[in-house]
Amino acid sequence: MVEFVRDLLARGDKSFSFEFFPPSTDEGEVALWSALDELEPLKPTFVSVTFGAGGSTRDRTVAITGRIARHTTMIPVGHLTCVSASVAETEAVIAEYQNAGVGNILALRGDPPGGPDAQWEPHPDGLNHADELVRLVRASGDFCVGVAAFPDTHPASESINNDIEVLLAKQQAGAEFAITQFFFEADKYFDLVNRSRDAGVTIPIIPGIMPVTNLAQITRFATLSGAQFPAAFAAELAAVSESEVREIGIGAASKLCADLLEGGAPGLHFYTLNRSTATREIYTQLGLSASA
């Protein structure tokens, strides 16, 4: 029986979830399943599996989410994008998810094949916006659909108000929860939530967390995603050793998580990069148990 994220969130308990990406090598496959095995005892509310640029990981994404659904206690959320796909091709992926026992989908427009700064060009027979994708998924079967939200303005957006208008449109199309892009300051999240509520957005907005364990890596990710990496934090990390970067980064992420939970966030979504250690260390610092 498929469990839906909307029902899990409606229970009112804090949601703790993890995100993974489909590996491209056999070694990466081993690392992924090792991380899943190590995080499963934490009893996440759900786990999500990303969809590669231009649909490049389509088969692996569907296969991994299906395997999670069939062979673990965890509830998978499969990603889906509008990039480089016709409506017919997108419908085929939705059917594959359904056949694999995956009932939860995160619907994203996705970045242009040339990167987030490239001009967006929809497929001539495809979809142009995430709300259209939400509507298509909801019309294709009994799915719970999540979407993205942005505490820092989306790279292609005119303003945070525009981002919120887009989020509202996705809710009106049938989205039932949102996960934010990662960010570094709790105030950014709460400002997004308050503005969204004022605009009529009622769906749960789960904050996305990516702990800093490597300065060059997080700087690159922040640039690609549009997340604003605080200058003072970057300077602090640039002045210490690699091992200290990791220690400071996990400490900062733990404090951010504590502030978010204390401020009323419905839970936390961890971008794991297919590794479990940092997430488990944050759980320990927060005093969370496997039954959280």
Explain what the structure shows:
It is a single chain. 46% of the residues lie in helices and 15% in strands. It is of the alpha/beta class. It has one domain: TIM Barrel (Alpha-Beta Barrel). Strands 1-2-3-4-5-6-7-8 form an eight-stranded parallel barrel, surrounded by five helices. α7 links the parallel β6 (177-182) and β7. The two termini are 23 Å apart.
Short description:
The chain has 292 residues and is of the alpha/beta class. The protein is built from 11 helices and 8 strands.
Uncertain segments of ≥5 residues (pLDDT<50)?
none
Question: What is the helix/strand order?
Answer: HEHEHEHEHEHEHEHHHEH
**Separation, N- and C-terminal Cα atoms:** 23 Å
Strand order across the biggest sheet? Answer: 1-2-3-4-5-6-7-8
Structure keywords:
alpha/beta, single chain, 292 residues, 11 helices, TIM Barrel, 15% strand
Secondary-structure map:
Elements (H helix, E strand, L loop, with lengths): L4 H6 L4 E6 L5 H14 L6 E4 L8 H14 L4 E6 L5 H13 L4 E5 L21 H10 L4 E6 L10 H14 L3 E6 L3 H14 L5 E5 L5 H11 L5 H8 L3 H21 L4 E5 L5 H10 L6
Parallel strand pairs: 1-2, 1-8, 2-3, 3-4, 4-5, 5-6, 6-7, 7-8
